[in-house]
């Protein structure tokens, strides 16, 4: 597994495992035993960090991650989040001092540790960014968090965070072949400021794995079934791209998902890619994904994207 350094010099596997679907919320039925097996398989495959959040199943994913860590001899890092939760089934985003401190304390207790490896603000809240940045600085000074991250931030919001004296180690934003906006703004900002970019939804939630055919249906409760971006028309539109990913995968003898992720790995500023896994098989495949592509493959993927209409 390829490793990259976080800004403080700590090496991490370039692929991390994400626990979003393990919470069940938004992803249809999920068995806890499958989630446990996915986590173990990912760690056995060389992954050294797990990304989780309180909102993933209202604590269910956090609890599974904490449980698995009590069994492991290795010590993977946990990338926690805060400031985004479910209240009566609705998402609430809150970057207030009270909420950030309460979320931090709750995760210290849930994981039985005195200091969190990384605490990320899940989404920018309605409060002024300077107020939230100040709370993270306070938690770091108090030794409650080792590193600080933000997520779903624009370049301007990142500038506001650092201008307010907010410490910053990582930025976690959406990034895939199909969602490459970060290349134009946040990734260059991260490279310039020596902050590690963590890519989420790199497989476009499964669409780029090459495993969906025309008969693909999503189970009840799976958000992908309600969104046109994962629907059959979109998949037809993306046929030239999906065919090109499959061609490269066959030529290189790697999974299609490895090609979709490999296309991201050479981008400057990128520290890690978070891949969601919900079964042992998906977890064990993460070991095959640290596979940076050659320029000629990047060029043919870009051409295939153009053939899809953008
Ligand atoms: N900060 C944020 O706001 C934010 C937002 C989203 C995600 N994230 C983080 O990023 C992580 C990854 O993002 P994501 O889960 O949204 O999307 P993703 O990694 O692009 O896709 C994950 C999904 O793809 C499918 N999949 C995975 N491996 C596969 C394989 N080998 N073959 C076929 N299908 C496969 C699985 O769903 P099925 O098997 O059901 O198809 C899995 O749940 C999350 O777990 C979370 O930690 C953060």
Describe the structure.
The chain contains eleven helices and twelve strands. It has an eight-stranded parallel beta barrel with strand order 3-4-5-8-9-10-11-12, surrounded by four helices. Strands 1-2 form a two-stranded antiparallel ribbon. A two-stranded antiparallel sheet has the order 6-7. The relative contact order is 0.15. With 310 residues, the chain is an alpha/beta fold. The chain has one domain: TIM Barrel (Alpha-Beta Barrel), CATH 3.20.20.100. The model has no long low-confidence stretch (mean pLDDT 95). The longest helix is centred in the middle third of the chain and has 15 residues, at 97-111. Bound molecules: NADP nicotinamide-adenine-dinucleotide phosphate. NADP nicotinamide-adenine-dinucleotide phosphate (NAP) is lined by residues 18-21, 51, 122, 151-152, 172, 200-206, 209, 211, 257, 274-278, 282, 285. NADP nicotinamide-adenine-dinucleotide phosphate binds at residues 18-21, 51, 122, 151-152, 172, 200-206, 209, 211, 257, 274-278, 282, 285.
């Amino acid at each position: 597994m390829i490793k990259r350094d976080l800004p403080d010099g700590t090496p991490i596997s370039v692929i991390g495992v994400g626990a979003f679907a393990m919470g069940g919320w938004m992803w249809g039925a999920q068995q806890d035993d499958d989630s446990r097996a996915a986590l173990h398989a990912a760690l056995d495959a060389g992954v050294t960090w797990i990304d989780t959040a309180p909102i993933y199943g209202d604590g269910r994913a956090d609890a599974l991650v904490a449980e698995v860590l009590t069994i492991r001899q290795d010590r993977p890092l946990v990338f926690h989040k805060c400031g985004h939760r479910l209240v009566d089934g609705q998402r609430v985003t809150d970057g207030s001092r009270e909420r950030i401190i309460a979320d931090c304390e709750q995760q210290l207790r849930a994981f039985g540790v005195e200091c969190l490896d990384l605490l990320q603000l899940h989404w920018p809240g309605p409060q002024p960014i300077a107020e939230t940045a100040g709370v993270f600085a306070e938690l770091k000074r108090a030794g409650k968090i080792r590193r600080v991250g933000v997520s779903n931030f624009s370049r301007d919001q990142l500038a506001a965070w650092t201008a307010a004296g907010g410490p910053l180690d990582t930025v976690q934003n959406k990034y895939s072949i199909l969602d490459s906006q970060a290349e134009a703004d946040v990734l260059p900002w991260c490279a310039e400021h020596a902050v590690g970019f963590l890519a989420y939804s790199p497989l476009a939630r499964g669409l780029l794995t090459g495993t969906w055919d025309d008969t693909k249906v999503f189970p009840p409760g799976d958000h992908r079934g309600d969104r046109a971006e994962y629907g059959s028309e979109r998949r037809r539109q993306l046929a030239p791209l999906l065919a090109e990913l499959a061609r490269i995968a066959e030529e290189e003898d790697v999974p299609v998902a490895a090609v979709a992720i490999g296309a991201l790995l050479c981008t400057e500023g990128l520290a890690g890619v978070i891949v969601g896994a919900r079964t042992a098989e998906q977890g064990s495949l993460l070991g095959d994904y640290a596979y940076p592509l050659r320029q000629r493959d990047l060029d043919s993927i870009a051409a295939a994207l153009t053939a899809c209409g953008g």
